[in-house]
Amino acid sequence: MRKLAAVASVGMSKIGKRTELNGRELIVEAFLEAWRECRNIDRREIGAIYVGSQSETYEHQIMYGSIVADWLGLLPKGSVRVEGCAAAGALALRLGVIDVLSGLNDVVLVCGLEKMSLRTTSQVTDALMAASDLALEQYNGLTFPSIYAMMATAHMAKYGSREEDLADVAVKNHKNAYHNPKAHLQKLISRDEVLRSKVVAWPLKLYDSSPISDGAAVAIITRPELAKKYSASPTYVIGMGHKGDTIGLYERDDVCWPSAVSEACREAYSMAGIEADDVSLAEVHDAFTINEILNCEAAGFARRGEGHVLLREGQTEIGGKVAVNPSGGLKARGHPVGATGLCQLYELHNQLLGKSGQRQVPGARFGLAINEGGSNSIVATHIISN
Could you tell me which of 152, 156, 133, 139 has the C-alpha nearest to residue 250? Predict the structure, then answer.
């Protein structure tokens, strides 16, 4: 097991409809938490800044790398905005790890943010759909709910999953988010409430879908040999994966098998020297409830076609075989798109340090994060250890 980089500290804003703050102020909120947790550090030691942000549509703002450097007092350090739709946060983390692993910098800052609530639901849907195929998906009126609905109906027809299984993903993740003070939706729900909620694209309903969220998350990354200088209790990135698939769902042989997730997890496991059975907890990309089921299969937690069986057995609960989305996931913690990959890191870091209160996963040793852009078109995975 090789330590690729150390996570000295993390910070995350409260996720939700943050009408009182703009995107740069959300980054400041997250950064101040990380800064308080990081010791013996001078701002001049931060050598580079990587910022994940999905779209300029929401705030009519690009150049978020420069804005972050300015607002955090890090100029003239160089910065890069990273784009990969909803995988932008994890891609920023990947670039930060590569940076310190190369020896170019001793310390880097990785960030993710999105301020989405300034736009209507239809405007947000349109901005997100820019990550789908223009000619054959956007122009024919598809939306991401309808694309994931096709994945769900294919899985139901092929493997016997049901609407109730999708609802149970939402119920579990809301239960986890209820104990997460930074979550967007701190509300317990029942299976019946999910099934009775408004249909968005059958079988997906309103409560099968992640909310439109504002939020930011950051991490201070350093070389493993310097970790104890900056933190009494660092965690370590020990494996990474980065794979892709067609941008259009229509080009795939099996619409309910996220091959890029499978390949990215395999790459991360190989790098870390572990197997799926070693993972204690996972933060997976559940923008829609079906995707948690698909990701559990692709990550190797269940056999292909049996992700819903793992759920029915209670094995994805805290205390089960592998706790999936103990933060509440995108579904209930919230999904500020460019920040999501670093929100996942925030949860894994704190879980591995035993700092997650009533949603603490007992004996957590290895955590897996799966962050996706488009309809599983680009995937970045990370394995974190204490």
Answer: 133
